Amino acid sequence: MAVAVIGVGHTKFGNRRDVNVPELAWEAMKQAFDSANVEQKDIDFFVVGTAGLWSSEAAVPSLMAEYAKLGVGSMRVEAACATGSAAIRVGYTAIESGEADVVLVLGVEKMQESPNPTVIEIIGRFGSYFWEFENFGLTFPAYYALHATAYMAKYNATEEDFARVAVKNHYYGAKNPNAQFQKEITLETALNSPYIAWPFKLYDCSPITDGAAAVVLASEEKVKEWGIEEKVWILSQGVGTGTANLSKRETFTSLKSAAFAAELAYKKAGIDMDAPYKQLDGANVHDCFTAAEIIAYEDLRFAKRGEGVELIRNEQTYIGGRIPVNLDGGLKAKGHPIGATGVSQAVEAYKQLLSKAEAGRQAEIKNGRWLTHNVGGTGHYSYVTIYSLEKR
Amino acid sequence: MEEFKKAVERNIAEYGFPVALDEKTGAMQWVDMRKLELSYLICIENIAPFFEGMREGKLLTTKCKRCGELFFPPQKDCPNCRVSEMEWVELKKEGVLETLTVVFVRPPSFAMHDPYTVAIAKLDDGVRITAWLRGDPRKVKPGQRVRVEISRRKEGYLMYELVPIEG
């Protein structure tokens, strides 16, 4: 059974101390219901992606059932920073299997309910706790920095190359009214910011964010029954898992789980493995840190190994280039409310494919396909999803 | 944060609730009065020889008696053979640095340390190890030979670290 995204909702990302957890989640849910033109009674099942810990509420699905008057089954999903995509997977497979017809998927995170030092302490634990955090204090930027330095050493990339990713993503973030940072930056600004975990400086890192995003998924049958015109299909999804402990990995210049997920997704969607970018109109990749975006270009086969850095140097991931990437500002400028990020990427895929993105950040839609790449931890979990205007 | 806490104390007395205004948005926040302090108990019963080895200056790990796979960090069970017949072997305490980073923004639980270098090295036995790297991180790069040294850390207990080999 084919599955479509028939409605989307997305809050402003950033400091959302103006609302509490259910109020924030409802903002996204309300928009998703309105855009899908459904009522609560139409929903068969709902999935909530939230990593939590930094925010006060733990039983979010139940909290939302109460707040939003949803009287059906629910579940909470967690896959670190890929939580949102994991939630979409649960919704997607529920429909694909025939278990449900219409599913609401909500991603929500209110990270700023805790002070920054607490958040740093919590995120540092998204690895192999005892052998990495407890004894050696590896922070989350440091996990990715271990990859960035390996990449620099192997392929002669520089800190300036990484900064170019930040410049691009802030350029597009400035055009996205929902982004946390709506300001362009220069290469100098990025390069002159203080070190967080060498080689990463402040502007190489995605921020701590509050935000929510929601999508309504429906079966092909429901789409027909309701005569839904505005929708995008989930063509395929690949999932990969990496080792918890980074020292158990053979390479630091690639995330094996992401390359694995990409191959699965391409295969299922019938996309050419040698030049997948020729069949896509754009992508959202998991740029929690600048170097992660460059490594993603290679794991997704947008460039050969070692040549991802050329894509950013030659502005090939801006609109008009080989493949536009992160036209919503990415995690870097749009913000990274962990549980909401994967769902936010789905919202962006929907907007881009239906040409609903804001002026200056709308890609040209020729192939009718958009890719999202959502990584949990440092490649601990990877989800690659391909959205399409045409059903397979 | 200190200002925030003072405002809460003042507001409990004056306003009647533990509230404060957010500095950026001016939105009113209820400041949770329930503190959560977490500290876990992690079982090391089945890898205790690793810690005993460190006390003697040795780096020990497990090797499957059947298939011979070497595991580091040490583990109790061999997933290949699905049996738990392991022997404890001593690792060569030398290898090659593969990657490193310097942690400038530290978690609060590491606040007593200066910025520290975390590195991953591949030991000559073939396994990889994550540890702090001693010395100036600017003087090393991937490919550098390193040795593992067991030393006492600032907190008072034993730990292993990576030390560059000169020359």
Tell me what you see in this structure.
- The complex is a heterodimer of chains A (392) and B (167).
- Chain A has 392 residues and is α/β, with parallel strands linked by helices.
- Chain A has a domain at 3-114 and 208-226: Peroxisomal Thiolase, Chain A, domain 1 (3-Layer(aba) Sandwich).
- In chain A, 38% of the residues lie in helices and 18% in strands.
- In chain A, the strands form two sheets. Chain A has a nine-stranded mixed beta sheet with strand order 3-2-4-7-1-8-11-10-9, sandwiched between helices. Chain A has a two-stranded antiparallel sheet with strand order 5-6.
- Chain A is globular.
- The termini of chain A are close together.
- Chain B is mainly β and 167 residues long.
- Chain B folds into three domains: 1-34, no CATH class; 36-91, no CATH class; 93-167, OB fold (Dihydrolipoamide Acetyltransferase, E2P).
- Chain B contains two helices and ten strands, in the order αββαββββββββ.
- The chains are: A alpha/beta (392), B mainly beta (167).
- The A-B interface holds A 15, 17-18, 56, 115, 117-118, 120-121, 124, 128-139, 141-142, 145-150, 153-154, 194-199, 245-249, 252 and B 1, 22, 24-25, 27, 29, 32, 42, 72-73, 98-110, 113, 116, 118, 120, 127-132, 137, 141-143, 159.
- Chain A: Residues 240-388 form the Thiolase C-terminal domain.
